[in-house]
Structures are given as structure tokens and as C-alpha cells.
Design goal:
2 copies of one chain form a homodimer.
Chain A (H helix, E strand, L loop, with lengths): L4 E11 L8 E17 L4 E3 L19 H11 L4 E7 L10 H17 L5 H16 L7 H6 L2 E7 L2 E6 L6 E7 L5 H6 L4 E3 H20 L2 H7 L6 H4 L6 H10 L4 E4 L6 E5 L2 H17 L4 E7 L6 E2 L2
Parallel strand pairs in A: 3-4
Antiparallel strand pairs in A: 1-2, 1-12, 2-4, 2-5, 5-6, 7-10, 7-11, 9-10
Amino acid sequence: MLKSHVTAFAPASVSNVACGFDIMGFALSGLGDRVTIRHDAQPGLRIGARDGNPPSMPVDPELNTAGPPVREVAKWYGHRGGLVIEINKGLPIGSGIGSSAASAVAAAVAADALLGGRMSKTELLACAIEGEKIASGSVHADNLAPALWGGFTLIRGYDPPDVIPLRCPRPLWCALILPDVEIRTKESRGLLPASLPLSDVIAQTGNAAGLVAGLMNGDYGLIGRSLQDRIAEPVRRHLIPAYGEMKAAALVAGALGCNISGSGPAVFALCADEVIATRVVRAMSLALEAAQCRHQTMISRVDGTGAHILE
Amino acid sequence: MLKSHVTAFAPASVSNVACGFDIMGFALSGLGDRVTIRHDAQPGLRIGARDGNPPSMPVDPELNTAGPPVREVAKWYGHRGGLVIEINKGLPIGSGIGSSAASAVAAAVAADALLGGRMSKTELLACAIEGEKIASGSVHADNLAPALWGGFTLIRGYDPPDVIPLRCPRPLWCALILPDVEIRTKESRGLLPASLPLSDVIAQTGNAAGLVAGLMNGDYGLIGRSLQDRIAEPVRRHLIPAYGEMKAAALVAGALGCNISGSGPAVFALCADEVIATRVVRAMSLALEAAQCRHQTMISRVDGTGAHILE
């Protein structure tokens, strides 16, 4: 029987992950966006009305990150009928935890399931990338890949996209702080250095390689030592209130490492277990309160599931 | 019973390994240097006479890479007696397969065994680094670590040296070409760019992270895709006759990847098995013969043992 509609969920994600600038990300448990794709008598693509979404969410399908992925999936299937995209945003927009990627991935996964369910994750990624271009102005997939695959993912390169899931044999928890300040991904990218001194390149590659080895070996110490960044943190930390104080508080409270999530303003701290993550997020929150900055806090296990169909 | 002398062996090694510039290396089976450390009535440190060594090998212990490691090991034990260092070089000097590192490591390992055998690999590495400084003019350990630990090693960083052995569950073979041209490590380092464009940094970190994941998963395809370099190969390839032709021949003959070993002129190609490595080294050799460049060829399994005591 042909379905009239499909709903998919895709999780929030932390990208960059310190030394993994533009190449690594991990998915968060429980938090995410839901997207329903529905057959429609009216041809073409449109965003359906849905209460509760933030007013800043674009309703033009070519300006919403969920639009191009559905267009691309429909193209893959040669589907000519109309489709309605209903978005139920669980994630705040522009917070640095992969909100646009979650919508793009959920949309691609739902559209694929509605039209036949025959696409591979790599094919879905290629469609979802078309949505992410709207948000960031460039091709990157370090939120898309973890939202699709779940867990920790490495994107080795883009020609073609080469995604490697990195399975950690020990649990990982994430403490998250979402400061109530706005940072646009495009602006945040403008701060990045055009080039990096060779000594910093060697340090960055050493830490990226170390993080992969630490994750695959379940070596918490190595994971912690590797969570350093020479590219984005030095220039972006100044956009986040009390960043240095939050990071110091997280490390003192037992986090393995702490850094900027995506292009910020969210800040993540990786932790070995839930008790530590709870203590860490409280310590970070206190540091931000001292700077009188409003914020949300959350803790989440690093998710191993990724995007999936809900109904 | 106190020993009068100890002999240690340390293997040749390939450093840089394309994307692993300054952070990765692997040891080769069978090829290497032997160093004997002998108690001596005459105080201080000296290099003992040994036939068959290349005339370019320095006999002043402060100018030979084996000297400072022995001095540092003696200091660690508080040893005040005289020591003679007898070097039996199995590796050509300045060829790019870790000749100076093999002598430094074998010297440190032999001196430790002679004086008590209580030092850790990390402590021995710190001593061996003092020898490598003579050869390269800077602190690096991407030949020392594989010579000490064996197999593939990652040096995440230097403060303090953080060595991570990377065990590949599938066999790896190495085809090696040693062209008969001289490249000095110090000069070769002078060619390196002072900085790298951000897009190249991202590609380099992606490939370094990909190589670690490929090795640990035993994923030959991923190892091959990751063996790319944006730092040294673009500037150093011109120092090696017929480099492009050799690399193309190696890949056509079935190598996973091919790049410059250390700072050259040696060229390595990683291969899945001995049959392929034999075919690959022949293809590379033909390419170099066409350029009328004299050279040595060898194939070797990536060694899993590292430095060890011989007697």
C-alpha cells in the first residue's frame, strides 16, 4: 500500500569537535527535529503550516534547509507529484547544535521512505548537503553525517563525500550550554584564518589523529588530550560570553574536554558518564550566570542511532 | 652478574607517511642498525672503531646520533663510568628511512639494558630525541617512535611526547625505492611552506584521521584514499627523479598508496601483501631506470616488534 505521508526524526549534533574542524561530528540523544513529507495534489514543493515553529524559520522551500533535500530525493526517484514538507523543529535555530542539518537529514530520510526507501546513506547525504548549503553558504557535512549515521563520524574528504563512522567502545556523554546570544554561521566562518602556520597544522593533525585513535580504543585520557583546536577556537571564543571561565569550570568538574559546538554559541563538554556530565553542566552554567548571560543547559548521551522513521 | 656489553637492534622506519607529516611513522622488518654499548676503563663516552661503516659516519659522540642518547641514559642512571659505543650501520645515511633514528634508538635501548633495564619506552624516547636533534636540527620523533615501539605509531604531540601505537589487524607490506641522490634533512625541511591554506589544513586533518581509522579497522580502501599529502610532497617531489612516474607505476601495480619516505629521497608504497609489494617495487624500479637513476629496491613487511636486545 502506498503511504500518504512519512515522518522522520534526525538528532542534534556537535560538529568541529575541537581538533575535528570541518571533518568530525557526533549526534546527541533525544534532541532533534521531526519532518513529515506528505503527497499533495498541488504540484511542486511547499512547506506546510505547523504551529510551534520559530518565526525565523523560512517557509519558502528553496530558503528552508529541508527544501532542497526533498527536491533532490524527488529528482532521484523521478517523482513529479506535489509534496508538502511539515517541519516540527525541536532544535533552536542558529545555536550551533546542527539545527539546519537535523531538518535537512530528517527531510531527506522521510522523503526517501515515502518514495520507495531505496537510497543509501551516502546518497541521502548528497541530497541533504543541498540543504546545508543554504545555512552555511558552503558545502560541509560535519553535522549532516552524524545526524544520518548517528554516533561519532569522520568526513575524510568531499570528493566524493567519504564518511567513516567511529565507534567508541565506552560510553560518552555530552554536557551542553546554549548561551542566549546569536552567532550566524556565515559570519562566524568569516572570522577564520585564511591560512595556518605549519606548527599549528602539525598540532591539529596530531590531535585529529589522536582523537580518532582515542575514540576507537575507548581511551578517555587520549580523547581528552586530543580535544584541542588551533583553527576556530582562538578566533571564535571571543564571541561567547565567559567562554574561558566555562571551559575551565568544565575541566575542573571532570570533563574530558570542552570546546565550541559547530560555529557556536553552543559549548560542549565530553564526559565519561552521566554523573560527571551533570556536574560539568552545572559548573559551566554557574560560570555563565556569573557573567549574567541567559542560557539553556542540557546533557545527552552521544547517540548511536542517527536519523530514523517515526511513523 | 653485571654485563660487560649489550647489543641492541633498531629497525628502519618510514616517517611522514603522506598525510602523517611529522606525526606518523612505521617500522620496517629486518632492516636496521645494531649498536653495542660496552663498559670502558677510560671515563667519558666514545665511538669505538667498527669496520664496514660508511665513512660519512661521525666518530665524535656529540656529532653522532648515537652519542647523546647514551649520554642521557647514563645521566638517568647516574652512571659515571666510561662507555664505548660500537655502531654497525645496516642502513644508508641520509636516505630517508630513519637511519639516524635507528642508531639513536638502538644506542638508547642497549645503554639502558647495560645499566639496569629499568627505563620505560617513553623515557627511552626522550633520550633518543637528543640524538635525532643532531640529524634534523629540530625535535621530532616520527622515526624514533616506530623504531622503538615497532609497527605504526602516531605522535599526537610533544609536550610531553605522546606516542600511540596503531595496530592494524591486517598485514601491510612496504615497497621501497632508494634513489641514489642525496637530500639532507635540514635542507629538505627548508623547502617546507611556512603556512598552509585552511582548505589544505582541513584536507590534511581529514586524511590523517582517515589513515588512523583505516589502520585500526584494517580497511585497505580507506588507507589508500587517506595516503595524500598537502605539506611536503608538493615541494619535495621535485627533488626525486621520476617521482611522478614512480608513483603512477606503483598505483597501477596495485599499491594502496605511494609517497615520500621521511624527507626523501626514499619513496615508499604501502601494499596489502607480499606478491603485490614485489610487483609494485618492480614497476617503480622500471620507472626510475627509464630516468637513468641508480637506486636500490627492497620490500619489507611492516614490522610489529621494534627495537630489541640481541645479546
